[in-house]
Amino acid sequence: MNRLRLGVNIDHVATIRNARGASYPEPDRAAELALAAGADGITAHLREDRRHISDADIDILAGLCRKRGKPLNFEMAVTDEMIGIALRHHPHAACLVPERREEVTTEGGLNVVGGHNHIAPAVKRLRDAGSRVSLFIEADPRQIRTSAEIGAQVVELHTGAYCDAARAGETERAEAILHRLREGAALAGSLGLEVHAGHGIDYATVAPIAAIPQIVELNIGHFLIGEAIFIGLTGAIERMRRLMDAARSSEQAA
After folding, report:
1. Is a pLDDT exceeding 80 seen at residue 254?
2. Structural domains in the chain?
3. Would the annotation count 221 as a binding residue?
4. Is 199 annotated in the active site?
C-alpha cells in the first residue's frame, strides 16, 4: 500500500493554554504524543497576532522534530517577519498560507495568481535555504499551474468547503467540490508537484479525500484536538490513521 502520511497540527493545544495565560497544556508534549501515536510529522502555524503558537513554541518544536527525525511543517504568512523566522529555524517544510487578523481560521487558499510578484521571491528564499515550500491553495487550475511556475515543490489543497458541505448534508455540492479536488490533485501531480490536503477534515470526511491517489499527506489539527477531549490524543490519532489506511487500501484495490 502507498501509505498516506499524516501531519498533526497542534495549534489548538496552544489556544487552550493561552485562554488562561498558563504554561499548560504544552504543545511540545502534544507533539510527542502525536508522533508516538503514528503521526508522520508536526504542523504549527505561527500567526502574526500570536493567538496560539508562540515564537518559543517554534524554538522547542523545531528542536524536538530534529531530535526525533520527523518533519516540522511551519505554516506562515508571506511576510518578511515570518520568512525571517523560517530562515532562522530551517524547518523541513514551509507552508505559505493566507492570513487576515480578523479571521477565526484560515478561510481559503492563497491567491498565488494575484500575488505572484510577492510570493515568488518568498518561495525562492525559502527553497534556497533548504526548506520544502508548500502553497496552501484552492483546487483551481490557475492557482495550481502558477504554483508550479514559481517553483513551489508542494501544494496543499484546501478541503474546508468540501468538509463543510458534506457535514451539512449538501450532497450535490459536496460531490462537486470533491470532483474539483480530484481534478486539481491530478493536475498538480502531472506538473510534478507533491500533493497534500487539509482543513476541516474529520472522521466522517476523511475517506473520500484519503482515497484521492495523488494526495500523499493530510494535515489535520482542530478536529483531533477536539476529539482528544473525549478519547485522548493517542486514541484520536490512531482512529484517524486507521480510517486513512482503510480508504487508501480500498482505493488501490478498486
Report:
1. no
2. 5-253 (3.20.20.70)
3. yes
4. yes
